[in-house]
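Journal club side-thread
Mid-discussion, someone asked how the predicted structure for our own chain would compare to the paper's figures. Pasting it here so we can look after the session.
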Amino acid sequence: MRAASGGRAATFETLYLVGADGVFSAVRSRLFPRAKFETVAVLQELWEARGDFGDYFYMFLRGGVSPAYAYVMPKGGLLLIGVGAPPESLEVSMEKFRRWLAGEFAFEPESLVRREAWAVPSGTVVCGKGRVILAGDAGGFCKPFVGEGIRLAVESGAAAAEAVRRAEKGGREVVSVYAELTAPLRALIGKMREFASKLATDEDREAFVRSELSCRTA
């Protein structure tokens, strides 16, 4: 393996390699150069703004704003707003979201503090190949419904360490052990992706939200 940082390069030899280098993983690209890895783009803005928001995390499932999701979170006296959408419609989705917030929550942006964009995995999970395994976003361990990946990154990272330990001890191929250990995580991601695909209309999304609220108030 060859790595470079700060203008310096070094070459390492290793029995196993854990790729944990994010959603656009260079390790994964080397392993599977022709594979398609699905992602959702996220655009987030931090505003000095006014609006009728309580101290809550707001998540919105509205097809008229975004085909994925949108959110608002008060943070340190500021408002953090974001949308998830295909890259080609990200700017349009954010503009729609701001207009919708203005109408529904009297959102009045005053000064933009920070703006950032990135991507999250969207259901494609890859364990690795041979003696190389992929953890966190590099392997696609992220909840496709909400784009949350911290928990799955920690759990897949722990599974990677355990897979190496078992492979060293038992002589099995490390990626096979890793696939077994992460099977529950991959099943969860698959179920969430299937569930999200069924929320095709605002009526479907509204029914889901009402169902969740009724469960919490029962």
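Post-session note: The chain has a mean pLDDT of 89.
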